[in-house]
Amino acid sequence: MDQLPIFLTIKDRKCVIVGGGNIALRKAELLLLAGANLHVVATQVGEGLQKLCDDHAALVETKDYDASALKDAALVIAATDNQVLNRQVSLDAKELNIPVNVVDQPALCSFIMPAIVDRSPVIVAISSGGASPVLTRKIKELIETFLPERISALAKLLGSYRERVKNKLAKPADRARFWENILDSKVSELVYSSNDKAAAELIEQQLTDPNCSEAISGEVYLVGAGPGDPDLLTLRALRLMHKADVVLYDRLVSAEIMAKLRRDAQKIHVGKEQANHSVEQETINQMLVRFARDGKKVLRLKGGDPFIFGRGGEELETLTEAGVPFQIVPGITAASGCAAYAGIPLTHRDYAQSVRFVTGHTKEGAVALDWETLAKEQQTLVFYMGLSGLSEICKQLIDNGMEQSMPIALIQQGTTATQKVLVGDLSNMPMLAESKKVQAPTIIIVGRVVELQKKLSWFNV
């Protein structure tokens, strides 16, 4: 380790920036966020920096630099394009034992400005020691992705109880165990869901009764896994996937997404397909209740979005009746994801002013739908689970007035590396699908927008 990572308090302390351009502006913004008493020294000061200094009552001296500008400074930043001047600022600061940073010149620095993820009071600083600022920025992007936005609220809530916990629990080990239990409980998720009041109540319960069962009560996470590509998972979905003790998952959840679960989580397949329900819905509902009452964090992982042909509402009704708390995380539904990856816009001013999501499940050999309405022009139809009823779907649309030449697309395993897209019309698609031996899962898209597929295709081309 070539540098010691530290957090420096500069609130109300003199901090000097030598330079007046855009780089100086960015550094000034950061120093002001930390409460610095900012002094800018430059022969010319840009409009943006001048306005920032005016807004924050910062001192601007439009003059040539000399060492007297550093008197009583807590730190110095040189941000000019004059290499000789930058070197002089560095020498002067080091002579006065003042921490100095010279932008993009690590050899002249006594400290390096890290990349920062700011969720104050939680702050993450990242540095490559000046070796690769771009790599540092990429690492910052990853942390920004996974660090919850409301972790700042969580830190403030925990901080508000720090003294009370210290007074109640004299031993450091006892205090550490208390906070570990709090962070392993529902407190974090309550805050992340903007339910700060319930989170505070739970901490109060633990302060007065450390054996309170509420802290270890279970919860169900109803999460949409999206159409298959793991990159389409939401940030909240990923976070809850990493927390779950038990996972009840459907057959449409891809192996790549399953690989992102906790390795030690109990995984139970409860998938369904037509005429083959590995676990009945009522049994699934009761499993969710039982695991949650056992104090488990239960992930109900569904392909696509749980509220679009996913029976998520039925499961939540059971949880509500049983008094089991839950969270809902929407996912990208198959219609949206598969259409986008196939290059088919579901609406377009020139082709379709509306879109309909329709279940294509057959019932006793027929698809019971309002075919006359579905056959109207200027709309896009998306059929879920329609492969087995494809011939009936095409026939009914034609019989109810839709042109035989109406474009139709059949997307197999959409958004995945094995995605296949077949494009035809209502008259030939059943035969085309049979000849290509198409297999589920599939999405069927009917409408003029399909004409754009060849032009807009981008994935796996």
Automatic annotation (TrEMBL):
<feature type="binding site">
    <location>
        <position position="308"/>
    </location>
    <ligand>
        <name>S-adenosyl-L-methionine</name>
    </ligand>
</feature>
<dbReference type="InterPro" id="IPR014777">
    <property type="entry name" value="4pyrrole_Mease_sub1"/>
</dbReference>
<feature type="active site" description="Proton acceptor">
    <location>
        <position position="250"/>
    </location>
</feature>
<keyword id="KW-0560">Oxidoreductase</keyword>
<dbReference type="GO" id="GO:0051266">
    <property type="term" value="F:sirohydrochlorin ferrochelatase activity"/>
</dbReference>
<dbReference type="InterPro" id="IPR000878">
    <property type="entry name" value="4pyrrol_Mease"/>
</dbReference>
<protein>
    <recommendedName>
        <fullName>Siroheme synthase</fullName>
        <ecNumber>2.1.1.107</ecNumber>
        <ecNumber>1.3.1.76</ecNumber>
        <ecNumber>4.99.1.4</ecNumber>
    </recommendedName>
</protein>
<dbReference type="GO" id="GO:0019354">
    <property type="term" value="P:siroheme biosynthetic process"/>
</dbReference>
<dbReference type="InterPro" id="IPR050161">
    <property type="entry name" value="Siro_Cobalamin_biosynth"/>
</dbReference>
<feature type="region of interest" description="Uroporphyrinogen-III C-methyltransferase">
    <location>
        <begin position="218"/>
        <end position="461"/>
    </location>
</feature>
<dbReference type="InterPro" id="IPR036291">
    <property type="entry name" value="NAD(P)-bd_dom_sf"/>
</dbReference>
<feature type="binding site">
    <location>
        <position position="385"/>
    </location>
    <ligand>
        <name>S-adenosyl-L-methionine</name>
    </ligand>
</feature>
<keyword id="KW-0808">Transferase</keyword>
<dbReference type="Pfam" id="PF13241">
    <property type="entry name" value="NAD_binding_7"/>
</dbReference>
<comment type="function">
    <text>Then it catalyzes the NAD-dependent ring dehydrogenation of precorrin-2 to yield sirohydrochlorin. Finally, it catalyzes the ferrochelation of sirohydrochlorin to yield siroheme.</text>
</comment>
<feature type="binding site">
    <location>
        <position position="414"/>
    </location>
    <ligand>
        <name>S-adenosyl-L-methionine</name>
    </ligand>
</feature>
<keyword id="KW-0169">Cobalamin biosynthesis</keyword>
<feature type="binding site">
    <location>
        <begin position="333"/>
        <end position="334"/>
    </location>
    <ligand>
        <name>S-adenosyl-L-methionine</name>
    </ligand>
</feature>
<feature type="domain" description="Siroheme synthase central">
    <location>
        <begin position="124"/>
        <end position="144"/>
    </location>
</feature>
<dbReference type="InterPro" id="IPR003043">
    <property type="entry name" value="Uropor_MeTrfase_CS"/>
</dbReference>
<dbReference type="GO" id="GO:0051287">
    <property type="term" value="F:NAD binding"/>
</dbReference>
<comment type="pathway">
    <text>Porphyrin-containing compound metabolism; siroheme biosynthesis; siroheme from sirohydrochlorin: step 1/1.</text>
</comment>
<keyword id="KW-0597">Phosphoprotein</keyword>
<keyword id="KW-0627">Porphyrin biosynthesis</keyword>
<keyword id="KW-0520">NAD</keyword>
<feature type="binding site">
    <location>
        <begin position="43"/>
        <end position="44"/>
    </location>
    <ligand>
        <name>NAD(+)</name>
    </ligand>
</feature>
<feature type="domain" description="Tetrapyrrole methylase">
    <location>
        <begin position="220"/>
        <end position="428"/>
    </location>
</feature>
<feature type="binding site">
    <location>
        <begin position="303"/>
        <end position="305"/>
    </location>
    <ligand>
        <name>S-adenosyl-L-methionine</name>
    </ligand>
</feature>
<feature type="binding site">
    <location>
        <begin position="22"/>
        <end position="23"/>
    </location>
    <ligand>
        <name>NAD(+)</name>
    </ligand>
</feature>
<dbReference type="InterPro" id="IPR028281">
    <property type="entry name" value="Sirohaem_synthase_central"/>
</dbReference>
<feature type="domain" description="Sirohaem synthase dimerisation">
    <location>
        <begin position="151"/>
        <end position="207"/>
    </location>
</feature>
<keyword id="KW-0456">Lyase</keyword>
<dbReference type="InterPro" id="IPR037115">
    <property type="entry name" value="Sirohaem_synt_dimer_dom_sf"/>
</dbReference>
<feature type="binding site">
    <location>
        <position position="227"/>
    </location>
    <ligand>
        <name>S-adenosyl-L-methionine</name>
    </ligand>
</feature>
<feature type="active site" description="Proton donor">
    <location>
        <position position="272"/>
    </location>
</feature>
<dbReference type="InterPro" id="IPR019478">
    <property type="entry name" value="Sirohaem_synthase_dimer_dom"/>
</dbReference>
<comment type="similarity">
    <text>Belongs to the precorrin methyltransferase family.</text>
</comment>
<dbReference type="Pfam" id="PF14824">
    <property type="entry name" value="Sirohm_synth_M"/>
</dbReference>
<keyword id="KW-0489">Methyltransferase</keyword>
<dbReference type="GO" id="GO:0004851">
    <property type="term" value="F:uroporphyrin-III C-methyltransferase activity"/>
</dbReference>
<keyword id="KW-0511">Multifunctional enzyme</keyword>
<keyword id="KW-0949">S-adenosyl-L-methionine</keyword>
